[in-house]
Structures are given as C-alpha cells and as structure tokens.
C-alpha cells in the first residue's frame, strides 16, 4: 500500500518535474526577495567595567533626589539601543520612585531619548535593561544622564547605581557635573539586523537552478504540443 | 517452519558459546589476581595516615611544568592582553603565587607528603587507591619495595580534586609501599586513605569487547554472500558495533579534537529558545570534566557528574530558535541529547546517547554511499571503517557530517564521471550538490571539491545554455559558501563587530596569529611561502609513509604504531588497484583522473594555507595545526584515480572482501582495546 503510494507519487513528480522545478525555483527567488524585507533585529550586548580585579572596588552610588549621574561616551558609528545598569534598591520598597534616563548629544543641547523605569519592578540589585526610544539618534558622542524622580515616594528610600573605582578609556562618569574617581558598571546594548533565511534561500535558489538545468523543459512543451496535436 | 528453526538454533548455540568463552576470559584470565590473591581480609589492605605502622613526612617541593602547561599559560596571557587591547583597557598581568618562573622554564610550588606503608608480608598488589581531600588537581607516585629493594617506581597517578581519589594498576608483589602525594596544600595524615585493591571485579565492558570480537569472527565464518551482495549492511553492522564499543569505553572523557566546543554547541542546539546549563555541562563545555583512567575512577566520576547535573540550579540562557547553518551538523547529536533528557538518563549515559546518534548519522550517510556506489564499493566501505573515522563518528564533532556527506558526494560524482555519456538527472544533481553543500556547511572550504562538476562534458547536458547555467550555479554556490569564511552571514550578540574583523581574526589557541598579518606576509613573500608549502606537504606525506607520524589515531589518545600505517597503505593500495575475480570495475577515465589529482593537490594546498593563515604565527617557518583528518574527504577521489578495469587478483570475491573487512576490523578492535579499554577501563 505505502510502496505503491510512494511509487505513484514518484511517478507523478517525475512526470511533472520539468514544470515543477522552474516554479519552485521562482518561488524560492520570491522568498529570497521577501526575506530581505523582513529582517530580524537582534541585540548585541557589550560588557563594560564589570570586573573587579587588582584592587578595584565596587560600591553603590546613592542617587539622591535632584542629583544627576551622567556617563559620557562615544558609540562609534552604531546607535546605542539601550543600557543595562545595576540598580540597587537598598532594601527599599519604592511604591512610586522612577529612574529617569535621558540621552543627550555631545553639547548637551538636544535630548535624544528618554527612558522611565519604575524602581519597584526590579529586584534589590538588578542590572536592568533600559531601552532608548528613538535610539537611532543616540550615536557618536553622547551623555547618558540618570536621575531619581521620587514622585512622592518616602524620602528615606533612595536607589543607588553600581559603580567601581576603575578608570576607562573613552568613558567618564560624573556626579552633578564632577568627574568620579571611578565609573558606572553595566552593559551597552546595540542592535543590528540579521537576515537568517537569506543565506539558505540563496543556496537553495542556485541548487534549484542547477536542478532545473537538468530537465528539458523545451522537450516537455514540445511533447505536450504533439499530444494536443494528435488529440485534435 | 523447520527450515526457519534450524538457523535460529545455530545462531543461539554460537552466541551461547561466545558468551561462555568471553565469561571464561573475564573470570579466569583478567581476574586471576582475585582468584589467587584476593582471599585475604579486605581490612588488611586498607591504611590511613594515622596507622602506627605508617610513616608520614611532608616537605615543600618544586615541580617543573610540562611544555603543554607552559604553552597554555603563555597563550592565556596573550589572549588576555589582546582582549584588554580590544576593550581599550590597560592589561595588568594576574599574579599566581604558586608559580615560579625562570629564564627557561616554569615551576609550581607543591607540598610532598610521603607515606611509607610496611605490609605484613610480600603481597601481590593489583591496584592501589589513594583518597585524600585536595583543593586543586594533585597526584601521587607509588614506589614498591621488596627486601628494601625497589621493584617498581615509575608509577604516577593523578588525583582530581572533585573525586579526591586516584587509582592506579600495579600488578606486582611487594612488602613495602611508598606513596608520595604531591598537592598544592599540606594534607593531614588522618585524611589520607590508601587501599590495595585485589578483589574480584567483573568488567562488563571487557566482557562486551570479547563478545564483539568473537561475534565478528563468527559473522565472518558463518556468512558468505552478505559481504558483496549487501556490503552496505556489513558496513553498517561493523560501524555501529565498533562505534558503540568506543562510545561505551570513552564515556565522558573528553579526548577528541576540541570536543568541549562541539559538546557545548550540540548541547545548546538540543534546546529550543531557553537553554538550561547544569554544572556538569558547564564543566564539559570548559573541557574540565574530571577524567577517569579505570573502572573505579569512572564510577566516582560518573557519580560526581550526576550530582552536578541538577537542573534545579541550572544556569538559564536564551538563544534563537533558528539553527544557523554552521550548527546544523550537530542536529543528530542534539536529537540524542534531547532524547536522553526526555528519558531522564544519567548524565554519562545522556552524553553517550548524544554521541551514538552522531555515529548513527555517519553510518547512514556512508551506508548510502556504499549502496549507491556503482564501482569500488569496497573502498568506500573500508575507508568508512578506518579507526579515525569511527572514532570521530563516536565523538562530539561536526567532522562526521563533513566526512559522511563528502564521501557520499564524491561517490555520486564518480558515478556521473563513469557514466560520461548519460545525461544528468534532476535527482542526481540534487543528491550531489546537496551532499557537497551539507558536507561543507561547517567547513566551507570543502565546497571547492564540487568544482569537479564544472568539468563534466557537454554530453551530460541537453544544450549549451543549460550546461552554462548549471556550471554557473555551482560556481555561485561555492562562492557563497567560501565567502562565509570571511564574513559569516548570521551573527548575533557581541561578536557582531569582532567576527569578520580581519584585524582580530586568528586562532586564539596559538600566540602571534593574525589572519591579516599572515595574508600580507604571503603576498609579500610568494616564493618563500610556496617553498614552505610544498616542503611541508611533502614532509607530512613522507612522515606518514615512513611511519614517523601515526596515521591511524584516536585524537589526543595517540594512535596505532607504524606497522598499522603500512598495513593500511598496502591494503588500500591493493584494494584500489586490484579487483577480485567476479568484480567488474570501470576507470573514471584519463581526463577525470588528472582533474581529480589536481583537485586533491589544490584542496590540500588550501587546507595547509588556511592553517598557516589562521593558526600559525605570522611569518613562521612551519605550518602548524594540520591534521590528517582534514584530508579524509580527499581519500575516495584519490582511490578513484587508481581504480582501473585491467588489474585483477586471483582471489574469489568472498575471500577478497572478507580479508579487507577483517584487517580493518582488527585495526579498530586493537585500537579500541589498547587505547581506550586498557587505558580508561581496566
């Protein structure tokens, strides 16, 4: 039963392969074109300043209301999608408090992006991903500012950001405009598009094209015409 | 019914005899020490450092590091320096206080604890087991005395800090045993336990080995036509039996080429979007699982691995569900690992099941190659069974897919070469190109082998246009695949900028490598490089032929002696040149013979150059890292060049095939016995 079904299917494919192959090849080409239209956006995580070796010490930089912690850096040619910094709740509950993250251009003239994070959502210490809206403009020399908006939260609860005493090239951390003897810890999140199917589809396309070249489509058309002619 | 019963009874009788003989060998030969000397009270063979008769003494010592250990420290420092440079940080060398560096060498500071154990009489010692708590990998030396004379002294055993025990075979009589324990910290004598193991121990693996040896012998004697009528089944049977034995023997020991890297990729592939990585898997990925060298240690290692394979505290990470092209070769292994988890198998068995699926996949590919080969089936089957191939198929590696698919592709290409006037069909085009592509996914450079299709004559195509488009498609496929070496198409994560950045490209297992730097060097010194390339190729080839380098190897376990290399060369040369009575062979023709040889030479040169560019320090006078396995896909095309229709030998088909299979199987069994069973399981 199965054998005869397989044999029948194989016979059918063999009979119609000269037509099937060009159609499948064409569909593959269409799929390849479509795969470029729908890219897969992926995040790239870059660790910065997360190791404490050779006498470097970690600490918590308390974020008092109205004080601003800023990180100056250069993103190179790629826009920064977001940042992951260590937010310490110091065992607080934070019913209302918000961590405000704002990104400015090099001259600090234009605000490029903003993120508002409800501190209550995190664990006591968590490296939270803070994505930037309109991140495409966060490129080149930028300043990322972190401030705490208590929003009526109790004054004795204050969050902190994780820092250490390491000095970094091309990155500087400031507290209320004064450069710290250390830097923020965290991860920089970039993004890029991938096209996961295009490579496979390209290979398939040329494989199918090679296969199509081994069937004689002209003879099939001719045979069909002959048969039609005989029938008429 | 009677007709059916007769062979069944015969096979049952044969199998029973095989089991009995194997049992006799295991009990009366391998356990003779237990029968003769193992009757003494077991407590008589146990000592601790606090026993009054045992003398203990501790002193500080320096141990010189091996060349490998020194190289590992140097490479680590270089890579840390490179990483710091890449991250724009200042490199500060970490201080290791136990390390003493001199101008020429490196030494490690250690504590040497000496135990002298007087035995009540001259006692036969089969094995010694030393247990003590150590925080880093340590070891001991055993020295045996009889009447104050040394009877055996160069006995060294390591103690893994995770199992705190080291067992070593002795097989000598002595009246005093001295144990020198070398550790990083001082060990309290009360914590040291020394045992002499003389008791009866049934080794299931050894028992299985002898069953397989005798079963194969019986298979050779009792069967006839299966060797030529169903050669693919003979291959599959041998491949699965020999591979299974290897997998069982090796267990979780990590001895294949970069096995930890392949193991991690296969493990990750066996999950969907969320990966659960247990402590044991992390150690496996770090090439850091405790190794065993006998049954006693194996049992402790497997217990340790099982305890640490707890998913309740596994590390959770995420990945894309999409399996990228370079990881697809791991899919069979991943299926085995997934199945093992579903069946809740212990860690060690899960690892073995993953490897077994890799073996099964390889067996299927070569089975198809043997089945579909129109001529020269025997050397496809024999090559598929060489110890190197069976070993790699029984390990975590993508080489299985590379070798398996390329063997299949080459066989199908040869079929087309022989049928030179027959038109290509869509099905054979698909099978050939798909095999080349699948075989080259993990090592794209091998797609160059598909260029043989460009030399197919126009008789194989309907018209000139179809021929041109077909050949153009092959060139484009090869181009697309080779391009991935320089710029991988799908890269996610923080590697995005690093991968494809030729300034940082280069194998980080060696110091001084730089892809860009090496290419500049070659372009700047073309004649010098050509000389180096040709000299290296000829020297390497000669080293195998002369026997100075082992050809049949089990990766880091080393290999069989040069006698086996010569037997192999003679066997394959004979097989390729001479057909038995009754086997019709056809030559691939002069044109394809020359083209095949050019392709083999070209591919070899590319392999050598790729190792020079990526693995060797810039401007080096040697090419490092080239291994015989890189040339395996080129063997079958080489045999096809020797295949001819004229030379015949006066041996009947049955005996011809049996001799070839017998030699290859003996080679495998001896390699498994001497390199795996004896060194890891006795």
Question: What does this entry look like structurally?
Answer:
The complex is a heterodimer of chains A (232) and B (682). In chain A, helix 1 (2-37) packs across helix 2 (198-212). Chain A has helices spanning 2-37, 198-212, 217-231; strands at 40-48, 58-62, 68-74, 80-88, 98-105, 111-118, 125-131, 141-149, 160-164, 171-175, 178-179, 183-184, 186-194. Chain A has 232 residues and is of the alpha+beta class. The two termini of chain A are 37 Å apart. In chain A, the strands form two sheets. In chain A, strands 1, 2, 4, 7, 9, 12 and 13 form a seven-stranded antiparallel beta sheet that branches. Chain A has a six-stranded antiparallel beta sheet with strand order 6-5-8-3-10-11, with no helix packed on it. Chain A is 28% helix and 37% strand. The longest helix of chain A has 36 residues, at 2-37. Chain B has 682 residues and is of the alpha+beta class. Chain B has helices at 2-29, 32-37, 67-86, 204-222, 226-229, 231-250, 259-269, 279-285, 295-307, 331-342, 347-372, 377-384, 387-393, 399-418, 426-440, 464-486, 515-524, 526-546, 562-577, 590-615, 632-642, 653-680, and strands spanning 46-48, 55-64, 99-101, 106-131, 138-146, 149-159, 165-183, 193-197, 274-277, 315-318, 579-581, 648-652. In chain B, the strands form three sheets. In chain B, strands 1, 2, 3, 4, 5, 6, 7 and 8 form an eight-stranded antiparallel beta sheet that branches. In chain B, a hairpin with a 2-residue loop joins strand 5 (138-146) and strand 6. The longest helix of chain B is centred in the first third of the chain and has 28 residues, at 2-29. Chain B is globular, with a radius of gyration of 28 Å. The mean pLDDT of chain B is 89. At the A-B interface, strand 1, strand 13 and helix 2 of A face helix 15 and helix 16 of B.
């Amino acid at each position: 039963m199965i054998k005869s079904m397989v044999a029948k299917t194989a016979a059918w494919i063999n009979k119609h392969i000269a037509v099937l192959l060009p159609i499948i090849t064409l569909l593959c080409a269409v799929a390849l074109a479509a795969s470029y239209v729908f890219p897969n956006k992926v995040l790239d995580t870059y660790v910065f300043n997360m190791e404490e070796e050779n006498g470097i010490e970690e600490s918590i930089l308390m974020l008092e209301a109205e004080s601003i912690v800023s990180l100056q850096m250069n993103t190179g040619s790629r826009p920064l999608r977001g940042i992951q910094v260590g937010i310490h709740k110091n065992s607080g509950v934070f019913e209302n408090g918000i961590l405000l993250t704002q990104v400015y251009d090099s001259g600090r003239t234009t605000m490029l992006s903003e993120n508002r994070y409800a501190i209550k959502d995190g664990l006591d210490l968590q490296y939270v991903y803070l994505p930037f809206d309109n991140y495409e403009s966060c490129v080149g020399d930028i300043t990322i500012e972190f401030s705490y908006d208590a929003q009526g939260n109790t004054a004795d609860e204050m969050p902190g950001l994780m820092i250490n005493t390491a000095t970094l090239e091309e990155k500087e951390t400031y507290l209320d405009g004064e450069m710290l003897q250390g830097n923020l810890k965290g991860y920089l999140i970039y993004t890029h598009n991938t096209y996961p199917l295009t490579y496979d589809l390209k290979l398939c396309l040329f494989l199918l094209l090679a296969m199509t070249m081994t069937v004689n489509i002209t003879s099939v058309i001719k045979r069909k015409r002959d048969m039609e002619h005989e029938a008429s | 019914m009677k007709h059916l019963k007769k062979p069944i009874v015969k096979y049952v009788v044969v199998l029973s005899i095989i089991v009995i003989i194997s049992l006799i060998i295991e009990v009366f030969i391998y356990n003779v020490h237990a029968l003769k000397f193992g009757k003494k009270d077991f407590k008589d063979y146990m000592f601790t450092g606090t026993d009054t008769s045992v003398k203990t003494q501790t002193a500080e010592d320096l141990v010189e590091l091996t060349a490998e250990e020194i190289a590992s420290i140097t490479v680590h420092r270089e890579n840390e320096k490179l990483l710091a440079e890449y991250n724009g940080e200042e490199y500060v060398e970490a201080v290791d206080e136990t390390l003493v560096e001199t101008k020429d060498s490196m030494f490690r500071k250690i504590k040497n604890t000496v135990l002298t154990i007087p035995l009540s009489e001259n006692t036969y010692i089969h094995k010694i087991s030393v247990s003590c708590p150590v925080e880093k990998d340590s070891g001991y030396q055993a020295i045996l005395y009889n009447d104050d004379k040394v009877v055996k002294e160069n006995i060294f055993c390591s103690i893994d800090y995770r199992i705190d025990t080291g067992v070593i075979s002795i097989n000598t009589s002595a009246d005093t045993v001295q144990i020198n324990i070398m550790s990083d910290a001082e060990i309290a004598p009360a914590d040291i336990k020394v045992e002499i193991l003389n008791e009866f121990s049934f080794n299931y693996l050894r028992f299985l080995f002898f069953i397989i040896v005798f079963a194969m012998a019986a298979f050779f004697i009792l069967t006839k036509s299966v060797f030529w009528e169903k050669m693919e089944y003979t291959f599959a049977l041998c491949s699965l039996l020999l591979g299974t034995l290897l997998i069982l023997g090796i267990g979780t020991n990590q001895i294949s080429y970069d096995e930890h890297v392949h193991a991690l990729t296969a493990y990750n592939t066996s999950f969907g979007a969320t990966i659960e990585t247990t402590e044991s898997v992390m150690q496996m990925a770090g090439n850091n699982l405790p190794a065993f060298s006998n049954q006693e240690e194996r049992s402790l290692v497997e217990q340790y691995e099982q305890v640490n394979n707890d998913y309740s505290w596994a590390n959770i990470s995420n990945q894309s569900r999409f399996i990228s092209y370079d990881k697809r070769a791991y899919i069979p292994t991943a299926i085995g690992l997934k199945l093992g988890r579903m069946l809740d198998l212990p860690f060690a068995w899960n690892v073995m099941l993953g490897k077994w699926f890799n073996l099964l996949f390889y067996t299927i590919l070569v089975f198809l190659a043997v089945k579909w080969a129109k001529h020269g089936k025997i050397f496809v089957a024999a090559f598929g069974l060489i110890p190197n191939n069976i070993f790699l198929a029984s390990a975590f590696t993508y080489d299985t897919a590379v070798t398996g698919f390329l063997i299949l592709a080459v066989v199908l290409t040869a079929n087309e070469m022989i049928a030179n006037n027959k038109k290509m069909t869509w099905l054979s085009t698909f099978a050939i190109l798909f095999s080349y592509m699948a075989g080259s996914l993990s090592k794209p450079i091998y797609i160059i082998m598909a260029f043989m299709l460009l030399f197919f004559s126009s008789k194989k195509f309907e018209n000139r246009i179809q021929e041109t488009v077909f050949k153009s498609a092959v060139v484009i496929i090869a181009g697309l695949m080779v391009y991935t070496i320089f710029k991988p198409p799908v890269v996610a994560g923080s590697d995005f900028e690093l991968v494809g950045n030729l300034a940082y490209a280069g194998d980080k297992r060696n110091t001084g490598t730089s892809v860009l730097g090496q290419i500049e060097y070659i372009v700047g010194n073309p004649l010098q490089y050509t000389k180096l390339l040709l000299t290296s190729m000829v020297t390497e080839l000669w080293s195998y032929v002369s026997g100075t380098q082992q050809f049949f190897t089990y990766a880091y376990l080393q290999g069989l002696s040069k006698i086996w290399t010569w037997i192999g060369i003679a066997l394959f040369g004979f097989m390729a040149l001479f057909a038995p009575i009754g086997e019709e062979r056809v030559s691939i023709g002069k044109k394809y013979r020359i083209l095949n040889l050019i392709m083999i030479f070209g591919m070899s040169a590319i392999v050598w150059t790729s190792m020079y560019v990526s693995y060797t320090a810039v401007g080096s006078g040697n090419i490092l890292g080239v291994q015989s396995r890189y040339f395996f896909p080129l063997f079958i095309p080489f045999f096809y060049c020797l295949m001819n229709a004229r030379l015949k030998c006066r041996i009947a088909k049955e005996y011809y095939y049996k001799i070839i299979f017998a030699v290859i199987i003996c080679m495998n069994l001896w390699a498994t016995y001497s390199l795996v069973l004896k060194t890891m399981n006795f």
